[in-house]
Amino acid sequence: MAACAHLFLLLALGFPLQETLVGVSALGFNWGTITSHPVPPRVVVQMLKANNISKVKLFDANPAALSALAGSGIEVMVGIPNELLHTLASSSAAADAWVSTNLTSFMGKRGANIRYVAVGNEPFLSAYGVQFQNSTYPAMKNIYESLAKVGLGDQVKVTVPCNADVLLNTPPSKGQFRSDVKETMRQIAALLSQINAPLLVNIYPFLDLTLQTDFPEDFAFFDGTTHALVDGAVTYTNALDASLDMIIVALAGVGYPNVQVFVGEIGWPTDGAIYANVSTAQRFNQGLVKHILSKQGTPQRPGVQIEAYIFGLLDENQKSLLPGNFERHWGVFTFDGQAKYTLDFSGQGLDTNLVNADSVPYLPSRWCVANPKSNESDLVRGAQYACANADCTALAYGGSCSNVGMPDNASYAFNSYYQLNQQDDNTCSFNGLGVITFVDPSIGDCRFLIGVSRAVQTISCFSTSKEAVDVPIIGNFHLLPSELTVTR
Ligand SMILES: *[C@@H]1O[C@H](CO)[C@@H](O)[C@H](O)[C@H]1NC(C)=O
Ligand SMILES: *[C@@H]1O[C@H](CO)[C@@H](O)[C@H](O)[C@H]1NC(C)=O
Ligand SMILES: *[C@@H]1O[C@H](CO)[C@@H](O)[C@H](O)[C@H]1NC(C)=O
Ligand SMILES: *[C@@H]1O[C@H](CO)[C@@H](O)[C@H](O)[C@H]1NC(C)=O
Ligand SMILES: *[C@@H]1O[C@H](CO)[C@@H](O)[C@H](O)[C@H]1NC(C)=O
Ligand SMILES: *[C@@H]1O[C@H](CO)[C@@H](O)[C@H](O)[C@H]1NC(C)=O
């Protein structure tokens, strides 16, 4: 509250509103929690505040996160997992119960500033088949009605995050929903239009670039391209604008040209693939921020500032590897809240350092490494055992530790397993191949992590959350969105 009062005072005195604050308000972060080393939510919220991040999107209504966000003023989008859609669609009593348990109990005077409920997460993803197709809209409608009943119909908006694969592969000016979801999208658009709520679409130029062999590299970024997409009189120079306009045109095609569209997820990973490193991620996310701050909008909606939630805030080392090894490295911050690169939210071209998480409850400075005198084939076996449980994505092709060689790659694997197990001595034995060291064994960009202690955390619902268990189906899961055809 103090910050708002301060801002009001500046306005009242006639000072211009600072660009930094205005700009940041169109930008939020996805805060996913599929990790074995959760940073305590209060530390994360402190980090958000220190970086002037004013919006977050959660994938559920996690009580620990919502309690930590209470009183912060940070605008929150909570999520409803797909598995609840069927129940919420078929019973308004279930929707009432969801709203009272998972929403209103965290709001109120000193509560969390919840402004959106994402009903389902990419429920129409082709890979899911038809399972959520008929329940998403009725679930949204029921949740909206439950919100309206408790007087929150205007304050808290319902929405649904869609994968870009709800669209057919067309030029932006011909944007169209997939025929199997078209009628559902029409119903959803009608509801969103009636209640003045946005549609969310997740857009991943990184996936286009990584998974399509002839996708022009610079079209994924924001600094101009030699391979523009020419669509009638309009020339697109980046994949984001083209994707947004596809969905805007598709909405018009079902009769709702004015529905707001937010980007629910967008980002760039730093490890686990050829195009994934700190400099590409910085280039993309900084370009994104500048593009948003320019308020130039897209050709379909010129001058309408783009609103987007970056994916993601922190790395999540227990996400499914099905999409690729990069899936665990989307964070602008490492799993433990250390900024990976500079990001200037003011758009003034400054090399602004983000503020790292403070008071992270680390385990002691101890690492587990391979005894260098060990038999190499034994080390390979030991590493395989470790990697079956722990995160070894940095060792894979294109990863930050892919070139370290033996025995260092076994050391990386051993340490990852040892930290996963909270530095339990027994988990550094590996039949005598492992030894504990007090000297940081990191090699250049290949960082050997130290875990975050679970012991000192009071109530954390993170490590046992449903999301963490059922990684492949619920939770934020990236697949290739529908592909753009680029004229070359
Ligand atoms: C956050 O905003 C305040 C007030 O505008 C500013 O002084 C501070 O430098 C900003 N911090 C960051 C990390 O951008
Ligand atoms: C609250 O949300 C959680 C998961 O997001 C769910 O398991 C639970 O059933 C919800 N409560 C109600 C009353 O719907
Ligand atoms: C969804 O609803 C449509 C129209 O009522 C129906 O034809 C279709 O079979 C339903 N699909 C599923 C998976 O229930
Ligand atoms: C990051 O990836 C890009 C694209 O593959 C590559 O050109 C660049 O050299 C890489 N940078 C670093 C620091 O690895
Ligand atoms: C390493 O151990 C394997 C059996 O685990 C053995 O066959 C091999 O000869 C050993 N290599 C060396 C260099 O000792
Ligand atoms: C570890 O390094 C050895 C030797 O360079 C290599 O044969 C092996 O494939 C590497 N393993 C991993 C997981 O990177």
UniProtKB/TrEMBL annotation:
GO CC terms: plasma membrane
UniProt keyword annotations, A-Z: Cell membrane, Disulfide bond, Glycoprotein, Glycosidase, Hydrolase, Lipoprotein, Membrane, Plant defense, Signal
Reaction(s) catalysed by this chain's protein: Hydrolysis of (1->3)-beta-D-glucosidic linkages in (1->3)-beta-D-glucans
Documented EC number(s): 3.2.1.39
Intracellular or extracellular location(s): Cell membrane; Membrane
GO molecular function: glucan endo-1,3-beta-D-glucosidase activity
Pfam annotation, one family: Glyco_hydro_17
Domain (X8): residue spans on this chain: 366-448
Main localization (coarse): membrane
Its membrane topology: Lipid-anchor
A single BP term in Gene Ontology: carbohydrate metabolic process
Top-tier EC class: hydrolase
Position of the signal peptide: 1-20
InterPro entries for this protein: GH, Glyco_hydro_17, Glyco_hydro_17_plant, X8
Family, similarity comment: Belongs to the glycosyl hydrolase 17 family.
Protein's recorded name: glucan endo-1,3-beta-D-glucosidase
The species this protein was found in: Adiantum capillus-veneris
